[in-house]
Design a protein that fits this description.
The complex is a heterotrimer of chains A (584), B (604) and C (94). Chain B has 21 helices and twelve strands. Chain B is an alpha+beta fold. In chain B, the strands form four sheets. Chain B has a four-stranded mixed beta sheet. Chain B has a four-stranded antiparallel beta sheet with strand order 4-5-9-8, covered by helices on one side.
């Protein structure tokens, strides 16, 4: 299904995301029917934001999840992420409950579905309908092999039995992608995805479970479903029967990477809201933003956002360019970004003080986002599950990649380089310990010797990560089997943390090096690189230190400039729908 | 040790997990939270118990003799529900200024009123000014032998429910530190129309609490409502905050108790990948680490609350440390537990009746309640120069040497001070020792003695080394103690070198404050170990982890890790063994604590 | 990697040696005795999980110097099945 053409970056990146921004309008404008006021009111009622859903219908967000061959606009995942950040930064319930859950479902179909299933799902999404994705069973969590829900051969096809729980949109979707046991024997070929068209479910064989109430994402309808001897045509199976685990592991690379990248939109609003509050607030006779500690925390959080964006950018581009390696990167991206985002939101809450705790007034969106961001850590995949997926790869990595391989290609990092279509047909279940990004760290640092003197932090963190990769190579080569399993010791889990840091560092260094000619002078300035490297949590369980003074000033200045010009806070600036504060 | 009959009785009254008093059923409490309804039934149970009398000093006719007992009582409530603890315990905060700055007669009158059921509230903050007390606009002006009160207090816990409101008002138009006075207003005695209560503010957590405000419309106050001298308001408030901020540790300790319990319970029963989570070393490490964090928080809270009696002159430092560090540790415990629970921690009804999801929201108020973390760190930073010089003095003239040295006239005073300080520290850390009455007149806005507990850290580390030499502690513990001593020495050098103006506190001062808090917590642990018998023979009463010194090793390790030290993996097994203790205790209702008695009782 | 009774690697291995080596490696991964592994029993029965199996395949590749489908152990979950799959990829030593 992939077409050989590439999409042009020049036309692709900014404009559709900008269109969504303008379509949804200034979120802080109380007169905007799509603004925070209405979003919060829906959240209070634990309902989806109906006007927001209609607005996204009008934009045709569903088409963003559908490849062009089937009539949609899904050509570049980085574009999709950027578009969805505009939704998430307003209302994560819309992001997940309107968008991402259907996207997750659809990726299963693009990866493994039949032509007919693809057309069907594309038709639903282009028609603004929802497709839900039911993998989760409370009893088994991330342990998919433990899945009990089953679809066994029966008269006329399959017979469904069992239940799925805490699943987004289960009740209001037109179709459900389900993960089911299709063989009672043990093993890795005992599961399949089903595309269950609700029209084909006979009466009396299925019931919905009561909605699951949640403390965040309150508007999202988390439901359950239970089947009892429910017949279903055999053509409901997605892909080769028994290959469900393989399909799942492939799809997760796309969805784990992009979903957590979308969550970054929340930190954008969190940061903007905090800055807005503090710049209008007088404390001890002057604006709160003049307090050095306040500036330091804000600058640190902005660096965190850039850090997340850098890693997400490389992780997302890798899905297009290096699909053989993304079984590793996707786990790393999800593991790393989720924690940084949650910690950053927490630090912002301490700056807002009592104001973050109030569910009304102009900063009320913050407490909603603080609640809504929590699934970053467990939704779709728990952080610990990501570590468990990386663990068994460590000895292979130590043998096959870490001693040094050909570094990742420049196109992975060049923001103006075209991307081939999403290679759904080239995703693999495992990287087999082969990846090139870790080798890019030393390669990138060596190729840009000026970095050694550009800022002490770059030299320090760069050296630390290089040394740590060497140590990891030695430590991981001899890890005994028990240390590669779920029952591994705590120190082994920490090895994955350290490895992820190397990937993050490499992504940052190479992004900087390959975009020195970018028209935005900020990207050419090694200051951003120094700031993001300074924020990498080098030691598991220990928060990174505050930024050094000079970087504090640089990042804070950048933050203020972006805030005042109503541009986004990530690596690539985008004009947001907020009015220019100085024009007001 | 510190488990008093009152704490024990309250704990029994409220019931154990699975066997709660009806008003404390988790499902009932989370339902009230959803309805944003005040937990009136639960508060009534506390009223019937007579908890309010524990908010009133014995000298004012109440039962408050030991602030550690009060800490443990409120922790006992907070463990069940933070909304209840905040809603009921606010009366203590509201009245604290009277205990600190009022006349004996006022205290007796207020005490009688509170014991009889009056709810007190504390009117400090105003819209737009938050923690900046000197910016307050509510004013009181002299009027025919009394006062006229005008203006709005906002984000006030129990402003609507409260009968008494202790109001900080501007009594000099120019304001300033002597421009404010305190009034204990009895709303019931105000004429019609003299005040309006503001609507309840919807909040992120503690949704049932009465967070509202009150506006005074030229309310006439009699002269006897004035607490302390005219112009003494800010000073009295700052001193009262030293007490209340310390007691607020109870909220975090109770929340931490419950988070650890839920985490342990989950690990014990949850099966994944064919085994229980408790069997996985990684999960055990997490359980051990959060247990250590809880014990570290408890050690800090215990020593700090005892210091209200033993070291009142140092409470400006101690309260700031406690209020910054203890909620931070509890937040860490909650975050780790949330990660362990995954989606279950996010479900507001279907898992553990939503107790954890509620706790996660509720506890975030503690760091902003009664002075936020930044305010407290600022208060500590303000005293860095004193902390540095006093530490240096103690290092050069340790109290222990005075008995055997010839004391010259020149050093006699210093040495005498050191001996007194040493005795006072021991009073704070020897849990069995009877504490004298709390004497508010010894409270001070700055601590001229610095922080005696931290000053005792080097000597304590030396004694720990001696204990290890004698085989009573593992060598590892002595190594950790010495590392912390070196950390404390280095930190004080940095404190001394800090250059700042009062207005421009550099951001790195906040990092130093965080390190200072950790040194304090470590010193608390070291001294608790050294100054208390941990009787090996009293199994069943004393938690095993408390007897064998394992807790000390785990807490010191946690402190050093937080200070940025990289320690070798081998020593981290202290966490694992701590987790084994937590998992081994029979029943799901045991707690991680250093204390015997109800806090550790598995069933009642 | 723990020391193996079979020091040879790659194409030098005979079919028997390969069987021995494979049982030994899998046994090491499962922390059990090689003798306890029935070559016709699905390895999942012994607790070899799906993700981990991908790693075992990579180790076999490195040891034998050949390339296998990463999911080969999902499709051929027994030692004997795996040997057949390997045999199809390499010329047997004499």
């Amino acid at each position: 299904m992939t077409s050989p053409t590439t999409t042009s970056a020049a036309t692709a990146l900014p404009h559709r995301a900008d269109a969504v921004e303008q379509h949804l309008g200034d979120p802080r404008d109380p007169a905007n029917p799509l603004g925070f006021r209405q979003i919060l009111a829906a959240d209070e009622r634990a309902e989806m934001f109906a006007d927001g859903e209609r607005a996204l219908d009008a934009y045709g967000l569903g088409a963003e999840f559908v490849p062009p061959e089937y009539g949609g606009r899904l050509t570049r995942l980085d574009e999709l992420v950027e578009i969805m950040r505009s939704v998430y930064r307003r209302d994560p319930c819309l992001g997940l409950g309107y968008g991402a859950s259907s996207f997750i479902a659809a990726v299963n179909i693009w990866t493994a579905g039949s032509e007919e299933q693809r057309r069907h799902v594309a038709g639903l999404l282009l028609d603004h309908r929802k497709v839900s994705v039911a993998y989760h069973e409370l009893a088994h969590g991330n342990d998919m092999i433990g899945t009990e829900f089953e679809a066994m051969p029966g008269p006329g096809g399959l017979v469904l039995n069992g239940r799925k729980e805490v699943v987004t949109n289960l009740q209001r979707s037109d179709a459900v992608v389900m993960f089911a046991r299709t063989d009672r024997g043990p093993g890795s070929r005992s599961h399949s995805q089903l595309l269950v068209d609700k029209d084909r479910i006979p009466a009396g064989r299925m019931r919905y479970l009561p909605r699951f109430a949640s403390s965040g994402m309150r508007g999202v309808q988390l439901g359950g479903i239970e089947f009892h001897d429910c017949p279903l045509p055999a053509d409901s199976v997605v892909g080769r029967p028994g290959h469900g685990l393989e399909t799942a592991l492939k799809c997760f690379q796309i969805t784990r990477t992009t979903l957590v990248a979308m969550f970054q939109g929340m930190l954008d609003t969190g940061l903007r809201t905090t800055l807005r509050h503090l710049s209008t607030r007088t404390l001890y006779g002057r604006p709160a933003t003049e307090l050095p500690e306040v500036r330091s925390v804000l600058a640190g959080v902005h660096a965190d956002l850039l850090l997340c964006d850098a890693f997400a950018t490389v992780g997302t581009r890798a899905l297009h360019l290096l699909p053989a390696e993304t079984p590793l990167y996707a786990q790393a991206v999800k593991y790393f970004i989720s924690r940084v985002l949650m910690d950053a939101m927490h630090r912002l809450s301490t700056l807002l003080g009592a104001h973050f705790y109030i569910r009304e007034g102009e900063h009320a969106i913050f407490q909603k986002l603080l609640r809504d961001i929590q699934p970053a850590g467990f939704g779709h995949a728990a952080r610990a599950a990501c570590q468990m997926s990386l663990l068994p790869q460590l000895p292979l990595l130590a043998r096959r990649s870490w001693p040094g391989v050909e570094p990742a290609p420049a196109d992975l990092f060049r923001l103006d380089a075209d991307l081939p279509p999403v290679p759904f047909d080239r995703l693999t279940v495992t990287a087999g310990g082969r990846e090139s990004l870790s080798s890019s760290l030393a390669a990138g640092l060596d190729a840009a010797p000026e970095l050694a003197t550009a800022h002490p932090v770059i030299a320090k963190v760069g050296a630390h990560l290089r040394d740590d990769l060497r140590r990891l190579t030695a430590e991981c080569a001899t890890l005994p089997p028990v240390e590669l399993s779920v029952a591994a010791g705590s120190a082994s889990y920490d090895l994955t943390h350290r490895y992820v840091n190397v990937l993050v560092g490499a992504a940052c260094v190479e992004l900087w090096r390959h975009n020195r000619d970018h028209p935005d002078p900020f990207l050419a300035d090694p200051a951003w690189l120094a700031a993001v490297l300074a924020r990498i949590p080098l030691h598991p369980g220990v928060q990174p230190p505050r930024l050094p003074h000079d970087l504090d000033r640089r990042l804070y200045g950048e933050l203020i400039e972006r805030y005042e010009s109503a541009t986004s806070l990530g690596l690539v600036r985008r004009r947001l729908a907020e009015p220019h504060p100085k024009e007001k | 040790m510190s488990a008093t009959p009152a704490v024990d009785a309250l704990d029994r009254r409220l019931g154990t997990p699975g066997d709660e008093h009806p008003a404390y059923l988790p499902s009932a409490l989370t339902a009230l939270d959803r309805q944003e309804a005040f937990p009136a039934d639960a508060c009534r149970v506390l009223d019937d118990f007579g908890l309010a009398a524990h908010y009133v000093p014995a000298t004012a006719g109440g039962r408050l003799r030991d602030h550690t007992e009060l800490l443990q009582l409120l922790r006992t409530v907070a463990r069940r529900d933070l909304t209840v603890a905040v809603g009921h315990g606010k009366t203590f905060l509201g009245a604290a200024s009277v205990w600190v700055g009022g006349t004996p007669e006022q205290a007796r009158r207020t005490g009688a009123s509170i014991t009889a059921g009056s709810v007190a509230s504390w009117g400090l903050t105003e819209r737009g000014h938050g923690s900046d007390l000197l910016a307050g606009e509510v004013s009181a002006v002299r009027d025919a032998g009394g006062w006229r009160l005008n203006g709005e207090k906002w984000l006030i816990n129990n402003a609507t429910r409260g009968d008494l409101v202790c109001v900080l008002a501007r009594t000099s138009p120019d304001g300033g530190p002597r421009g404010f006075s305190l009034f204990l207003v009895d709303k019931r005695q105000l004429p019609e129309g003299a005040h309006t209560c503001l609507p309840k503010v919807p909040t992120h957590g503690i949704r049932g609490a009465d967070i509202s405000g009150i506006t005074f419309h030229n309310a006439r106050l009699t002269d006897d409502t004035l607490v302390g001298e005219v112009g003494a308001g800010v000073e009295i408030v700052l001193k009262a905050l030293q007490i209340t901020r310390t007691v607020c540790a109870a909220l975090s300790l109770g929340a931490g108790d419950t988070a650890v319990r839920i985490a342990v319970d989950y690990a014990r029963h949850r099966s994944l990948y064919g085994r229980t989570l408790a069997e996985l070393p990684r999960v055990r490490r997490i359980l051990g680490e959060i247990s250590a964090a809880q014990l570290l928080a408890e050690a800090t809270g215990l020593v700090a609350s005892r210091s209200i009696h033993a070291l009142p002159g140092e409470m400006s430092v101690i309260s700031a440390i406690t209020k910054a560090l203890v909620p931070d540790l509890a937040q860490h415990i909650i975050d780790r537990t949330a990660e362990l629970l995954g989606v279950r921690g996010f479900l507001s009804e279907q898992y553990a009746d939503g107790t954890f999801a509620k706790l996660e929201r509720d506890h975030r108020v503690v760091a902003i309640f009664d002075g936020n973390t930044a305010v407290n760190r600022n208060a500590l930073i303000d005293q860095f120069p004193l902390l540095a010089t006093r530490y240096r003095r103690a290092r050069t003239q340790p109290a222990a040497t005075t008995a055997t040295t010839v004391v010259t006239a020149a050093t006699a005073t210093t040495a005498a001070t050191a001996v007194t300080a040493a005795t006072a520290v021991t009073a704070a850390t020897a849990l069995g020792r009877d504490l004298g009455d709390f004497s508010p007149r010894h409270l001070s806005l700055i601590s001229s003695d610095g922080c005696s507990l931290v000053q005792s850290l080097p000597e304590a580390a030396a004694r720990i080394t001696a204990e290890a030499d004698a085989g009573r502690l593992p060598r590892e513990t002595a190594v950790l103690a010495e590392l912390i001593r070196a950390e404390a020495d280095a930190l004080h050098e940095e404190l001394a070198a800090q250059r700042r103006t009062p207005r421009d506190v550099p951001a790195e001062s906040f990092a130093l404050a965080e390190r200072y808090e950790l040194c304090y917590a470590a010193a608390a642990c070291l001294r608790l170990w050294l100054d208390n018998p941990w009787p090996a023979g009293r199994a069943g009463e004393m938690p095993a982890a408390a007897r064998n010194g394992l807790w000390l090793q785990a807490c010191l390790r946690l402190v050093l890790t937080r200070l940025g030290h990289r320690l070798d993996e081998a020593g981290a097994t202290a966490y694992d063994r701590l987790a084994d203790h937590a998992l081994d205790v029979s029943g799901a209702t045991s707690l991680t604590t250093l204390l015997p008695g109800p806090a550790s009782r598995s069933t009642s | 990697m723990s020391s193996s009774a079979i020091e040879k690697s790659g194409p030098d291995l005979s079919a028997d040696e390969l069987t021995l080596w494979l049982r030994e490696r899998i046994a090491a991964h499962l922390a059990m005795s090689p003798d306890a592994i029935d070559v016709d029993e699905p390895l999942t029965t012994y607790g070899l999980d799906s993700i981990y199996a991908l790693t075992v395949v990579a180790e076999i590749e490195d040891h034998l110097g050949l390339s296998l489908e990463p999911t080969v152990m999902w499709d051929r979950p027994t030692v004997s099945g795996l040997l057949e799959a390997i045999a199809a990829e390499r010329p047997l030593a004499a």
